[in-house]
Amino acid sequence: MAIYATKTNTDQQIEGVIPIPVPANGQLKWTVPAQGSTPNEPRLSWEVVFVRHIYLSSPTRNFNREDGTRAKDGLYSLLDYLDPEATRAFLKITHETYRQAVGDQFGKIVLGFFGDEPDYSSSIPWTPKLLEEFQARKGYDLKPYIPSFFYGRGMEPNEETRRARADYYDVWSAIFQNRFFGEQAAWCKKYNVEYLVHLNHEETMIALERSEGDYFRDNREVQVPGIDNLSQLVPRAIHTPDGTWNVNNNFPKLASSAAHLFGRPRTRPCAANFRLARSGSPSGTLNGAPEEVPMKRSLIALAVCHCGRRCCTPNGPGNRSPCPP
Fold this sequence. Notes:
The chain has nine helices and nine strands. The longest helix is centred in the middle third of the chain and has 32 residues, at 159-190. The protein has a domain at 1-52. Strand 1 (2-8) and strand 2 form a beta hairpin. The protein has helices at residues 84-102, 130-138, 159-190, 205-212, 215-218, 235-238, 252-262, 272-279, 292-301; strands at 2-8, 14-20, 45-51, 112-116, 194-198, 224-227, 268-269, 314-316, 319-320. The model is unreliable at 272-288 and 311-325 (pLDDT under 50). 27% of the residues are buried. 32% of the residues lie in helices and 13% in strands. The protein is α/β, with parallel strands linked by helices and 325 residues long. Helix 1 (84-102) runs parallel beside helix 3. The strands form three sheets. It has a four-stranded parallel sheet.
């Protein structure tokens, strides 16, 4: 997809990057420049990097793995979030199966579908048609700027490169909104159910932007905006000074603000944290049921109004959590 060469000095700092055209026949012939190769010049190391596209799941995928584990990593591919045909296939396999099984009670007993952390934490967002989309939306070719996505050691991007990166984020996040979140929200609206989803890293905005794009853009059509990581709402976290922005106690306002902006009557937190509080938190994240009360008070104060539970999830082979229905 892209090839580039970097020259690195003896302090392991990148001094320059040279884009190399991708040969049409797939065979690269490239001669290293003479810089740094004579006794009168500083010694430089050259590295040629080949960039290719592979499918990677978000690292939160820990169900239905071929290796039988519950690991959270990007080993197995899930689907291309930026391809509407992939989203429609997901709807057909999953949502349509439930709709047919439930019959005329669909929308009465089964009220909606929950999405949990679809994101790009393990990879750089891409889809095979992104170059075509980028050209159509921005009017120039993204390919010469792709190498800048991968180098960073001592190499400060210039204004032109920064603009290309910003345009890239604008394009892929707009595709993410429409072809993943929008497709599911439209299907749910068609069949009179609701789409509830929470993204990843709502509590750390910079990480959220890198892996999700724009919180409000993603939730533009979602019927029930959500949030997670409620362990930051327990009293000891709320009253702990933190100058690194790793603790952000106001992030539930993202969900309530999205609901306010887009006319949604409800917001909802991911209920796993309530389950942990209720069950005594074997992971040590929470200290037990008493902390559930201030968590709920914080959520209500921040206008997150629909608190549910995710109950009886497996803790291991043959085990289920003690959380009651």
